[in-house]
């Protein structure tokens, strides 16, 4: 009887370990807005498609997306983050990186009419 209990518990333990992380493919249609010139307040907004993968675990998150415009241009984005939690469950030691077409990038928030940068308050 003990052997049957052990054989039943082992697969359940393995499933719980696998449930800590996940990764999935995504794709769809969206609207891509490209800021051509901040100083001239010029944007190009077009329908586009995207595909890629997103995933994460208890200490890591990643998204790798490819956006394709109707003219054939492709923008490849990678967004990585590593982190852990303090004893109260708050995120700490956050390290993140973002790239567009293989080059380091920075996310900035722009007001859609004035093109002025703004911060998002937590």
Give structural attributes.
single chain, 122 residues, mainly beta, six-stranded antiparallel sheet, 6 strands
What is the topology?
Elements: H1 2-18, E1 22-37, E2 42-56, E3 60-68, E4 74-85, E5 91-100, E6 103-104
Antiparallel strand pairs: 1-2, 2-3, 3-4, 4-5, 5-6
Can you tell me about this structure?
Helix content is 14%, strand content 52%. It is mainly beta and 122 residues long. It has a six-stranded antiparallel beta sheet, with no helix packed on it. The radius of gyration is 21 Å and the shape is globular.
| Overall pLDDT level | 81
Order of strands across the widest beta sheet?
1-2-3-4-5-6
Please report which band the strand proportion falls in: under 5%, 5-15%, 15-25%, 25-35%, 35-45% or over 45%: over 45%
Low-confidence stretches: 1-10, 15-19
- Give the assembly state of these chains: single chain
* Helix-residue proportion: 10-25%
- What shape does the CA trace take? globular
Number of strands: 6
Q: What is the rounded distance between the termini?
A: 55 Å
Largest sheet: 6 strands, antiparallel
The whole-angstrom Rg is 21 Å
Backbone structural class: mainly beta
Which H/E pattern describes the elements? HEEEEEE
Number of helices: 1
